[in-house]
Amino acid sequence: MHEDIKKMINDANYDDKRTLYSSFFSSGTQTSGKMNNKLILISLICLVSQKMSVDNKTVTPKDVIEKIISRTLNSNNGYDHYLIGLSIVCDDMMVGINEIDSFGLKTSAEIITKIKNILEEWLPF
User: Phi and psi for 122 in degrees, rounded to 5?
Assistant: First the structure.
């Protein structure tokens, strides 16, 4: 990252940082209103990313989301903008983590279905 951008972010006040986060990394479009769904979604995407990285060290949460929704994310699309932000949050949350809860889901199919179900609750805009 460019040093001037880092400095600008470091010097920003709380409200400016909150606005920056909300603009690029928020999952605010989710309509379920349930904190657990957001946390489960993040955790499961991280889990799938971690499992896929065993075979492919370069896989990212963005790759996982694209595979699950069967298309490439486009940052110009409002809905995709949130999914890209979600992937970045997941990427950050995975740093230094070696154990991720599956919330009782036993198979890959169950995990992918749960991710899809939560994503379907998001408004596509």
Answer: -80, 145
How high is the mean pLDDT of the chain?
87
pLDDT tens, position by position, 58-90: 999 999 999 999 999 988 877 888 889 899 999
Residue ranges per structural domain of the chain: 3-120
Give the number of other CB atoms < 10 A from CB of residue 81.
Answer: 18
Q: Has residue 104 got a pLDDT over 70?
A: yes
Alpha-carbon span 9 to 5, nearest angstrom: 6
* Cβ-proximal residues to 111 (8 Å cutoff; 6+ apart), any chain: 44, 47, 48, 102, 105
Helix axes 78-93, 14-25, angle to 10 degrees: 110
- Check if the beta carbon of residue 73 is closer than 8 Å to that of residue 83: yes
Yes or no: say if 42 and 89 are a contact pair by the CB < 8 Å rule.
Answer: yes
Question: 37, 31 in Cβ contact below 8 A?
Answer: no
